[in-house]
Amino acid sequence: MAKQPMLKFVKTAKEMPQKRDADVRSHDFGEIYREFAAEKAAEQSGRCSQCGVPYCQSHCPLHNNIPDWLRLTAEGRLQEAYEISQATNTFPEICGRICPQDRLCEGNCVIEQSGHGTVTIGAVEKYITDTAFDMGWVKPIKPATDRAESVAIIGAGPGGLSAADVLRRAGVQVTVYDRYDRAGGLLTYGIPGFKLEKDIVMQRVKQLEDGGVEFVLNCNVGTDISFDAIRGKHDAVLIAAGVYKTRELTNEGADAAGIVRAIDFLTASNKKSFGDDVPEFEDGTLNASGKRVVVIGGGDTAMDCVRTAIRQGATSVKCLYRRDRANMPGSQREVQNAEEEGVEFVWLAAPAGFSGNPVSQVSVQKMRLGAPDASGRQSPEKIEGGIYEEGADLVIKALGFEPEDIQADWDAEELETTRWGTVKAQFGTHATSIPGVYAVGDIVRGASLVVWAIRDGREAGEEMLRYLATTTSVAAE
């Protein structure tokens, strides 16, 4: 009888891939987790209970067939595991690295709920696809037949790229327009290398390029090319522009030099990692070296900023967040990594004002949690008289992102938006108010997760294929 490869969670403890020592990793931008060895990946996959109702799968936005590829990995059938993983996820090697698994699949693992420690789903997902690239199992995109229809995608982030993959595999001609000089969006310029090394993103971009996807970079829609011109050149359009407008501070002194946007700080750091010439990094404007750094915010972007500042050689790094640790939106795993690397978190604290120009001091308002708000989270309240001063040479605003005014910037008044400024798109189809124009990702959802953008892009790609088939058949008649 064959040996049972699964249900080993009772005897085998949860084990993550080894982390590089904090004292070493905090001086470079290499990924902090080492790769699983084949035996360890099989062992940890074998902890899966193969439960009848896989909550890991139902809580994954892509509904990945997680129990299936865990079993295949435990059995040593890695190529099949990769094929099952790739069937529902355009970029499993990226999701395995940056998804907040503690809030999604792993956080809802049945054996985690029973006290045995979750299956390390993300680490296995990463291992499967990295192995697939190494072994040559990731095949070039080769449509069976090239089609005449053409689609424009505005935005080369995860939503746009996942849609491009779906459309190009079906033979559609795909052109991706993006404001940056490299494709990838926030995958390339927003997420630091210690979470997602850039060659991982670039290998997927190359796969799309080699498969016939055309990239038009350094192209700002509304400035370098009009939205109407794009619509005129293509049979359908997908808006996947993301949200890049930073929420601003309104405190006194918030316009001082030395108070910078998180996106600018992270983009400069990532460009530097590519070897680019970055004047604002070289002159110290977007460089934390030798500075007392204060990051304001409690999401994943704030975590990226504090950990980047440590690696740039800041003398101290503090993160102010107005709620407590339990109520922060960022990944708890990221908070732990940051603390190991020397970041100090100041909970229940918010900026009250700034002194100096360039900034030299932050007035910090102590907070407490009051009654729950409409979302169910306790609202932060000021503690009367609870203000103190914190020295700072660089303040980074990581307060979240909002959409730019697309209607005005693109001269697209017919494109319906919500009261928050996001593009209004139908649930499921992602169709907008303009026939043949679709929208996905953060520009629809507001600032959200990469995995949701991938799901949106895949769904929109399939819907656009149906639209193209309909319009083509009508035209033929």
Provide the structure class.
alpha/beta
In total, how many beta strands?
Answer: 15
CATH architecture verdict of the largest domain: 3-Layer(bba) Sandwich
Mean pLDDT: 94
CATH topology of the largest domain: FAD/NAD(P)-binding domain
Order of strands in the sheet with most strands: 3-2-1-4-15
The CATH homologous superfamily of the largest domain is called: FAD/NAD(P)-binding domain
Number of domains: 3
- Helix count equals 19
Largest sheet, described in full? Answer: 5 strands, parallel
Backbone shape: globular
Unreliable segments (pLDDT under 50, ≥5 consecutive)?
Answer: none
CATH class of the largest domain: Alpha Beta
Q: What is the distance, rounded to the nearest whole angstrom, between the alpha carbons of the first and last residues?
A: 62 Å
The level of helicity is 25-40%
- Percent strand equals 15-25%
Radius of gyration, in Å, reads: 23 Å
